Amino acid sequence: MSVEQRPKRLYAKEVFQANEGQLCTIRGWIEDIRPLGKICFITVRDLTGLTQIVLNRNAVGDEVFRVGNEVNRQSIVEVVGEIKPSRSKNVLKEVLAKKFEVLSKAHPPLPIDPTGRVASSLDKRLDARALDLRNPKTAAIFKIRHTLLKSIRNTFYRLGFIEVNTPKLIGQAAEGGANLFTLKYFKQSAYLAQSPQLYKEQLTESFEKVFEIAQYFRAEKSNTLRHVCEFTSLDMEAAYMNEFESMEIAEEVVCNIIEDVKRENEEELMILGKTLTSPTRPFKRVTYTEAVERLKGKKKIEWGEDLETNDLRRLGKVYKEFYFIYDWPVVIKPFYIERRDNKVSKSFDLMYGYLELASGGKRVSDKEELIRRLKSSNLNLDEFKSHIQTFDYGMPPHSGWGLGVDRLLMAITGLKNIREAILYPRDPKRLTP
Question: Is 340 noted as a catalytic residue in this protein?
Fold first, then answer.
């Protein structure tokens, strides 16, 4: 039977809505086979769910019936059949097969059980990631991620932002950090970008409001549950906007994501056993000084020190939802963050419990101040020559932030390990698959 002659393909979700007696084509992978004499029940899964296929020996013939009984689970099949009511309490409708074809055989033993009935370690699952994605729980995470990315774009489009793409091969360290992957770029030295910071600042000169969703790289030998070497970042920058207006944009993005996931991913949330509630708005705003005061008692924290993981865990027990920590000390923020005074910067972090999701603030828009800040940070001005030059074109006051998409997905889905939020994670020990 040619493709043109086959009845319309239906996904598992559509089978239950279709009319009885309708002819259809089903495609997917075999999850279960239950032979019962001259009848064989085959469960076929696709990206939307399960369809029960009925092979009747008298209807399909001995050879096709034998193939259906003996084919290995996880093999890819195509079934042409008629929709019938089912006698099973758990299945409303099934497909009585008229034709059954194996498109691609699976070859056991498989490295993991994608049904999840036999548990596998995360490392084994990642080693066989393409197979792991057939697990409904794993698939649910990335269906939610899809909604999250769509929601981000829709919010920024509504707010009049322009989506941009900045280079990932760069000739200077954007934030002056040491945690950069270096490589040879023909006869020059180059880096993998850890942030689009300088580019997005420059783009505010013409586009005013820009955002980007892209991969970035950080050469940190961290083996924590929230760090990876390649991550997805959402970055925005807007001219004529102060740090507090920038915080409001972050709040709007996060709240829209949660509402969209609640509406579009009800089934996936149920599979993950996760209930989402709408965040309280506006998000709580806590100054760095207030946070340090909260932490006094068990541990002495000198004003000006960065907050460590244990400090943030303690804060997370006080502020259980999304919240901002703002007015961080100048000494622990990058050179491009504007000062409120000699001690405090116009900066903020968006937190969820102990997890830092985003960091941002008002940027330096004065050329001479930028040069002073670069010098005080012991950075080589020559490496930032092209960026400094753009300030001669007229740099508007601007603010922005960068948000870790993978971490936000962790917060929404309740994941404990960031590697579960990334299709093919890269960490100090993993470069494949």
Answer: no
